[in-house]
Amino acid sequence: MLAQIEQSIKDTLHAYNQAHGGGFVRAIKSYAGDFDAESPDEFAQVVASFPAIWVTFKSSSKPKKVGAKKRERSYVFTVLVGANSGRREETSRQGAFKADGTMLNIGSYQLRALVENALQGNRLGLAITPLEDGEINMLFNSKTQNQVVSVLAYDFHTSATISDPDRDADVPYIETVNMDYVYFDSGGNTVDNPRVLAQDKINLASLTV
User: Fold this and answer.
1) What does the pLDDT read at residue 91?
2) What is the DSSP pairing of strand 27-30 with strand 64-65?
């Protein structure tokens, strides 16, 4: 389920960006520790991919029992949006526009709005509750190699009903039992060459309680 939700979030964002993003977003992908750069040069390489969007699983609560063999579990996914600007700090967040309103540079605030419009209330084509937006946190608002960087983390909540495994399916089902009636000696032991006196087959499926 986690992999399905994560991939569906990416697919939904990609489709929405193609239709409404104006071509500003350069990459939409799963987060893989991109911001854990060990040097300014490595971080600058990540910034070079901006504007970009990342998706990652954040947490899941303990499931709630909702039926004899069903539980409901909630999930939180985080969508990170990153924008940069060579102009001013505000531009990395608010974007840059021409006098006629045409966008020149998309900011993290516009990316946040794009993500919200694409995901809020969306079931992603899966058997989950509609996505609900949650906390938004500023991760980075700093300058690196003549670029001002703004990265926001946006949480989305959903839940799904989980069916418990059918444990009965793990037990082999026996329909019939074959029985042999063997001759015993006076001591209650079978003879050296046991002689089958009779055979019987019991059909368990036909028995009633």
Assistant:
1) 75
2) unpaired
